[in-house]
Amino acid sequence: MAEFLDYGDPQQRPRFTGLASFFRLPYVEDFEANPPEIGLIGVPYDGGVTNRPGPRHGPREVRNQSSLIRRVNQATGAAPFAAARVADIGDAWVRRPFDLASAHAEIEASYARVHAAGIRPLTCGGDHSITLPILRAIGRDRPLALVQVDAHCDTGDDYLGSRFHHGAPFKIAVDEGLIDPRRTVQIGIRGTLFAPEMWAFSYASGMRVMKIEEVEERGWRACIEEAVSIVGDAPAYVSFDIDSLDPAFAPGTGTPEAGGITMREAQGMVRALAGLDIRGADMVEVSPPYDVGGVTALNGATIMFELLCAMTGSKTG
Asked: Residue 93's CB: how many other CB atoms inside 10 A?
């Protein structure tokens, strides 16, 4: 095995060594001088959660677990670190976390800087409310298509006196013209509701909603193929909420729902997105305080690796 390793490369050193960055990549906060093509970013913010907190700790633990991941995707042959210049460009951390609107503005400003440098962001949250300010930064020029893998549609409205929370980012994104609802697909939706019309906005605006029962009955391959056809050649954003996974695979999340997708299904769906014009992506809602043995953070890091493979355009072999 030794002949395959280059210990001058930090990614090939023993995985228990060194400081934890995403996938043991170079850590570069001052990125404008030599910007990577894809920047991995943490957003340690969970001011938008409605129940169990903790996703603010997600980026740090996902970085730690990502050290277990190697350079090549054995299933597809994708080698994303060879296919593109990729770096960990630090955290979009919030200096005023107790005011949600102000916090979102800080996150937006961080991503505006990333977008201005020509970097495509791959984000680790944080709660799902952070997707809204990211979309505000990168979706202003043209509404983006959206592929959302999630247990919840997240197209709610006012909750406990605020429109801004992790159950509403995609309604606001439509209201602000950041995503095209006719090119939006929400996959894996399930769980109980406060009222039958809780996700009415998704249907009324023209989003394609695939409940978990449809995913099971049709199969994940058919569902993701339809999603890809809906997105077409439009610039797209991919948002993966870790609570889309069954709690057996992701106990460490704020709003777990029984009866979710498996990790094998999730990996297959993300792999099928290779070739789309992905302008940015995120993996959110890993909450380490509720995790068991690091399994949720590891699965979150694995999904980020699969997203990275898709963003570098590598096709399934």
From this structure: 16
Q: Let me know how many helices (H) and strands (E) the chain has, helices first.
A: 10, 8
pLDDT tens per residue, range 136-162? 999 988 999 999 999 999 887 766 565
Closest CA to 30 of 83, 90, 86: 90
CB 23 within 8 A of CB 38: no
Residues 6+ apart with CB under 8 A from 203: 209
Superfamily for 27-311?
Ureohydrolase domain (3.40.800.10)
Q: Which residues does the chain have with pLDDT short of 70?
A: 1-4, 7, 158-167, 314-317
The pLDDT value given to residue 316: 36
Angle subtended at Cα 309 by Cα 172 and Cα 12, rounded to the nearest 5 degrees: 125
Q: Which backbone phi and psi does 186 adopt, to 5 degrees? A: -115, 120
- Residues in a beta bridge with 186: 148, 209
Alpha-carbon distance 102 to 175, whole Å?
19
pLDDT at 79: 95
Rg (CA), the chain: 18
| 130 Cα distance to chain centroid | 10
Residue spans of the domains in the chain: they are 27-311
Q: Any alpha helices (H) in the chain, and if so which ranges?
A: 58-66, 80-83, 100-116, 131-138, 169-175, 200-205, 212-218, 220-231, 263-271, 295-311
> Token pair of 191, please?
């769980």
Looking at the DSSP assignment, which residues form a beta bridge with residue 38? Answer: 86, 120
Neighbouring residues of 33: CB distance < 8 A, sequence distance ≥ 6: none
- CA 135, CA 139: separation in Å to the nearest integer? 5
Is the whole-model pTM more than 0.85? yes
